[in-house]
Amino acid sequence: MANMNLYSRGDKTFVIINMVLIGIFTLSTLYPFIYITAISLSSGFAATAGTVVLTPVETTVEAYRYILGDSKFWISYGNTFIYTIGGTLVSLAFLIPGAYALSRPQLFGRRFWNLMVAFTMWFNAGLIPFFLNMRDLGLLDSYFGIIIGFAVNGFNLILLRNFFEGVPDSFEEAARMDGANDFQVLWKVYVPLAKPAIATVALFCMVARWNGFFWAMVLLQDENKIPLQVYLRHTIATLSDDPEFTATQLNASYSFETVSAAIIVCSIIPVLIIYPFIQKYFEKGILLGGVKE
Amino acid sequence: MAQTQSGTAPAKSQFAQRSRATKIKDHLRNEWRLYAMLLPTIVWLIVFLYKPMYGLQIAFKDYSIFRGIANSPWIGLEHFENLLGFDWSALGTDDPFWTGGNEQFLRALRNTIYISLYSLLIGFPVPILLALMFNEVLNQSFKRTAQTIVYLPHFISSVIIAGIVITTFSPSVGIVNTVLGWFGADPIYFLTRPEWFRPIFIGTTIWQEAGFQSIVYLAAIAGVSPTLYESAVVDGASRWQMMWKITLPSILPTIIIMLIIRIGNMLEVSFEMIIVLYQPATYETADVVNTFIYRQGLQSGQYDFAAAAGLFNAVVAFVLVMSANAISKRFSRTSLW
């Protein structure tokens, strides 16, 4: 916008107050992460005495040593990667061709198919029928069930479809002139053009998969198949259920609090590593596709 | 072309029909790839989302695992009567019509409405305000950094967030009680106290989602025509005035659409977080319909009864979004459909 010199004194005050408020909101978003990291690196005594505020007290990596030595932690960590990578790839395999087909005007019954997708965004059968269906399909306690059972999401499909619809026809016509069929048009023209939208949808799928916990908890009984979130929930549940429990389990170098803080930090790290690379994509992607809906 | 000739002579209409069949055949021969691409997605929708709708009928049945969905006997509205406490047979007699219902369900319904309503009232304006404020930041690197940070919690699992909340509010470790201790207060077991559940839950979800939700509004603000601001500057408007008189009205359609979506999802409070945060001591204020369904259905195996509760929830949600849309259509000519 305009030059700062054009601003009145009132404007300058407004801008400064605004910055301060945003600063406060931002710091209050950041603080819990710093705090939990500090807890994870503090000794059990220090953490339980409530002396940790900003930086680790009696710094120790015992909590990390404890969880990194737990084979269940590694199994669940590996499972989370399987569900995230497998699930995202399967989702894209359904979403990209489906969205492309739905965006084509020559598709017969296009309105009907689109309505069929949109309806699932507003109405679903609910927890119990969904669970019974998964059970009847034999997808309980199965990697495959978690990966395929949540592959398509109406919102993501429509976001991609909107993006494909926005691609100018001339791109497609040029490819058709060269004798490309729909598969080739999609793969060689639309996919490269739709990179921001596909990256956004891929990101949404990844986040949903990485974070997904409820259905993993309900559908998976086998301890060797559960993802990190379910493992973490088991740990936190035992910790939070009984205030007495934590006191008796107290250990000089680590406690249940520092251990669960360490699990939390370990499970956030991959998100933090990927996050900066995709931030620009999801901002662009939401700007392009999401608002139209 | 086929349609224009129909209805003239019988011979011709037969010809028209045949040409229609050939047209479909030609269409499929030319465009089969499109249908091949669509097919997996449609099959998926049918298998995983539409087929369960068939299973919804157990809400009206005495469901037994051994008989299966189709062979379990119909029992009409019995589950709903038990849930809500309506006794239809008492209509027109002297017996009481309302028998009290399932206390836990009604409590869960009440809690769902309270939590969603408070979340809506307190949580809905926050991302709008954030977007308006971000728009007024002139220092681009400050803006970028702040945005990067406030989007972050959205990408972190409810279980993790709940873990952070539990640690933060814990009576022994928690920073909240540490700070209260500086002022000489005794530690409070926040997460075992029913009166603290809602403030903590609502605050947490706002903390987690407000930043990310502001993106949609920022996108809408980016679409506002710069000429509006230019003429406002000529008229001597302050930044404050521009924010209220130009930016806010310009994004009003987006706000209304988001509000409708939000009302439609109102009863779908993020119960993943509630499941991790609540405990029997706080059920009184924390138990919502979805957590009730989880306990009754998936933990205790009363599938039919829990499915009825789910259907009731879905119908209420459907009515809510339809009404919100209708009201919005009437007063602002903005609507989802």
UniProtKB/TrEMBL annotation, chain A:
InterPro entries xref list: MetI-like, MetI-like_sf
Residue spans crossing the bilayer: 12-34, 81-100, 112-131, 143-164, 185-210, 259-278
Source species: Yoonia phaeophyticola
Keywords recorded for this protein, A-Z: Cell membrane, Membrane, Transmembrane, Transmembrane helix, Transport
Pfam family, one: BPD_transp_1
Protein location: Cell membrane
PROSITE patterns: ABC_TM1 (PS50928)
Family: Belongs to the binding-protein-dependent transport system permease family.
Name of this chain's protein: Carbohydrate ABC transporter permease
Domain ABC transmembrane type-1, first and last residues per copy: 77-275
UniProtKB/TrEMBL annotation, chain B:
Protein name: ABC transporter permease
Membrane topology according to the record: Multi-pass membrane protein
Species this chain originates from: Yoonia phaeophyticola
Record family assignment: Belongs to the binding-protein-dependent transport system permease family.
Pfam families reported in the protein's UniProt record: BPD_transp_1 (PF00528)
Keyword Translocase assigned: no
Chain coiled-coil ranges: none
PROSITE patterns on file: ABC_TM1
PANTHER family, per database record: BLL4140 PROTEIN
Transmembrane segments: 32-50, 113-134, 155-183, 215-234, 246-264, 305-327
Keyword list, A-Z: Cell membrane, Membrane, Transmembrane, Transmembrane helix, Transport
Organism domain of life: Bacteria
Domain ABC transmembrane type-1, chain residue ranges per copy: 109-324
Alphabetical list of InterPro entries matching this protein: MetI-like, MetI-like_sf, UgpAE/MalFG_permease
Subcellular location: Cell membrane
